[in-house]
Amino acid sequence: MSKVLTAMDKSGSYRVYLTVSTDMTEEARQIHHTTPLATAALGRVLTGAGLMGLMLKNERDRLTVQFKGDGPAREILATAYGDGRVKGYISNPNLELPLKADGHLDVGGALGIGQLTVIKDLGLKEPYIGKISLVSGEIADDLTAYYYISEQQNSSVALGVKIARDCSVLCSGGMIIQMLPDAEEESVDALEAMLAELEPLTTIIERAFLRSAGKSEEGVLQEVLDDIFGNMPEKFVPEVLEFRQMQWQCDCSEDRLTQALATIGKKELREIIDEDGQAELTCQFCEKRYFFDKEHLESIYDEL
Ligand code: ZN
User: Do 264 and 40 meet the contact criterion of CB atoms below 8 Å apart?
Assistant: First the structure.
């Protein structure tokens, strides 16, 4: 479970969503057995999607963020709900590429040229679908561009995942700054100046942990917020609104997998029953396996 700090500046120009998502990214790594590069890529997507989920109006609203490219990662997908639940996968968890010249993991190279699709299911008849070409494949840039191009909204997304020597997740975090409709013009300049100087988010988070040893998660997030926005003009300094929660959780079930089996078609299902006499399905989000014996398959078949 990760805490998410939400804040708004005094002038009502922008809102901030900020999280340290180390636990969530580590859980995803353990489930999908990802290499460091795949962990970084998936962790960024999960964290970004999780924050975007919390920006939805209702707890049952849902969004899916899909990165698809011609690089070796192929596809990274995450689904998040308005109540903070997040799940996701990367189609190539064994991903490996040389480090970039600056020593960072090459997430952009892993995705290559491709597209970002965001699907928002807000309980209406049709979901809202936005699609853009990848800007850099580094995830945060692409999500920032998505907001600008598809939602005509000025937002800035920062994401970071740092991997430990033993390949576990040392630190993972994310921040979205969302401009509000009545934003003061000067606030945009002040934020741009701040963002131009912004250190990697994981560096700021690690420093906050060192400084606030023994403090609660809320205390650490407050420290990160102060570190980032401390030098803003007084009226643009953000004040904490509330703390929310974000957590890895898969909502798969035997029922859901049964529905999936039912959609493959009568003829195909008959073939599985006659040839294999059983079926094993793996949830692609959490790798949980579901076993269907012959009797169960027959009953699904009968209802088609
Ligand atoms: Zn699952």
Answer: no
Q: Which residue has the tokens 């008849």?
A: 125
pLDDT in tens, 117-132: 999 999 888 999 999 9
Write down all domains in the chain, each with its CATH number in brackets: 2-248 (3.55.30.10), 254-302 (3.90.1280.10)
Ligand 1 geometric centre to CA of 254 (Å): 10
Compute the mean pLDDT over every residue in the chain, rounded to the nearest whole number.
95
Distance CA 272, CA 270 (A): 5
How many angstroms does the Cα of residue 236 sit away from the middle of ligand 1? 42
Nearest C-alpha neighbor of 25 from the set 134, 167, 140: 167
pLDDT band of residue 260 (cuts 50, 70, 90) is: confident
CA of 165 to the centre of ligand 1 (A): 29
> What's the DSSP call for residue 236?
G
Give the global pTM: 0.94
Using the mean position of ligand 1's atoms as its centre, give its distance from the Cα of residue 199 in Å: 36
